[in-house]
Amino acid sequence: MLEDIKKKMNDLIDKINKASYEYYTLDEPTITDQEYDDMYNELLRLEEKYPKLKRNDSPTNRVGGEALEKFEKVAHETPMLSFDDIFNSEEIEVFDARIKKQVKNPTYTLEPKMDGLSGSLIYRDGILERAATRGDGVIGENITTNVKTIRSVPLKLTEKINIEVRGEIYMSKLSFQKVNIEKKKNGEKEFANPRNAAAGSVRQLDSKITAQRGLDFMAYFIPNPDKYGLKSQHESLEYLKKLGFKTNYKLNSLAHNSKEIEKYIEDLGIKRSNLPFPIDGVVLKVDSLEDEAKLGFTARVPRWGIAYKFPALEVLTTLKEIKFTVGRTGKITPNAIFDPVHVDGSLVSKATLHNEDYCLQKDVRVGDVISIRKAGDVIPEVVEVKLDRRKDNLPPFKMIENCPICNTKLIKKDAIHYCPNSNCPARHTEGLIHFASRDAMNIDGIGESIIQDFYNMGYLKKITDFYHFNEYQEQLMTLEGFGEKSISNMIQSIENSKKNSLEKLIFALGIPHVGAKTAKILAIKYKTMDNFSKTSLEELTNIPDIGETIAQSIVSYFSNENNKQLIKELKRLGLNMKYTKGETQESEEFNGKTFVLTGSLEIFTRNEAEEKIEALGGKTSSSVSKKTAAVIVGANPGSKYTKAKELKIPIWTEQEFQEKLANSSEK
Ligand code: IVH
Q1: pLDDT tens digits for 242-272?
Q2: In this structure, how many other beta carbons lie within 10 angstroms of the beta carbon of residue 508?
């Protein structure tokens, strides 16, 4: 009887795995979603009834398991290396020539360079046993539970072998958009690009969250392929496909010289924006394993391969409108609003045009064809106007003279236009958004759109209104789109914000020219809001790092009766007015050391990262030198990263940084 049930369960697993493979790996479904769900639910029911019979490669494991405390470190069996990067055709020719000096008539495999993060999967007797991140190449992190949720990762191979498979964990463009829509809805910070989204999702301690993110896996490499009788990279790729992995078999190709390589790059560049997944270049590998062995490795990288990276992507679109927005200081910014276009995996429809001079210099006109690219891979920018495609009679750009919101006549100061009306509604909402933002009071769950809505409905007109929300909690709960839970979470985070240390409040007030860093210097110096508000021009200019402009702005802020009233009122509402971060907890890892941050961080904002370092007795600097203790790198690091490598300064990923912080504050 039990044997029958076991057989039935095995049968269901086989059928579900086959259907999953066809759907997720081959993209060629053969059964309906309903049929799939029925089999899946039947298996789930049997596993619940007979837990002893549940197989550890069961597809029901893909929903995620128990949340972890932290990721366990694991050593790679063979180091997980990456290739050197190149950026243009000369470098391709140099590479080709270098290879040809050592091997005769090489064939190259050409593969899209997937834009995610590399992962190592170890199978024992054909069953997925362990998955790890690359880490520093020698030690990675055990992410097995999370990787099991990825549908295109086979939990069981078609052969009962022991093998390590490497490939890219990535997020499709569609999943990326879905995740960001969800994040935006919840008032959370959106992922900047699919790579960050994949990295952030795979490093969730709660694998149930990973399971919902729609990650994918593309296999591209077998270490020690000779063990399986393979003679070339293209045979490795074929073998991976046969074992049940998703490979890029439709796009991978072979070439023999730089001309063919360049042709492939050009063709792939054209296909790029229509591919469902993000790629950022082409990986070139010498195909024959015998040749690879001849070429070997340098101290850091294999000599038998290289990664060509595409130039920053530019996309053409049409400028539909130049829309002027008003910031919290009254600053007017012209923005380019254009037909939505995909740039490197995300859909963009606007970019800043900074100010009048910028618009005149670029000579942008509504109706122009413009090219857009992502600056630093994150913020879209207008690269240029395609003048050769300009239609006749497009009127030249003209700066507005009155505020687009309150119609007050604008004033101009140092090339920037301002709305001088301190009661301008736009300035109010921007001020409220700033007040609640992460580096300011960090009121979780209240994002831009909620603030706009509450402002329009009259619940939130000024800063102090945040702290009256609890009085009409019940009314808020009846609003469409807000549940009991979201409102009570909101009220809780408003309550928590009262305890913030002084520097957050100083920054949140939005005093012109007082950024987060300055706010911190001021909080440390004055310790209480009382002291700070009574300061003088002379006293302020004596503080290192505080210049005339900032000093004047602060004095003028506190000479305004409305601002004085606001602070009084905030105090009465119970906000902390003291600097409470003072006591630094010294830690060996951070104390007295200098750190440099580079690239776009995912887990922390820049300011948070700096705060954490300082709280542990460390310092941050903007340039790398021999004295730098470590460089913390986010996505797309710049020259600081290269310099750190040159100077052999320790390089920490953001995750490693997070762990070191955790270890340091535990002590
Ligand atoms: S092969 C020894 N193949 O790009 C290097 N890598 O430097 C073995 N990548 O870090 C990697 N697509 O994360 C290889 N088809 C592909 C790839 C690929 C993306 C990533 C990988 C690696 C970097 C190459």
Answers
A1: 999 999 999 999 999 999 999 999 999 999 9
A2: 25
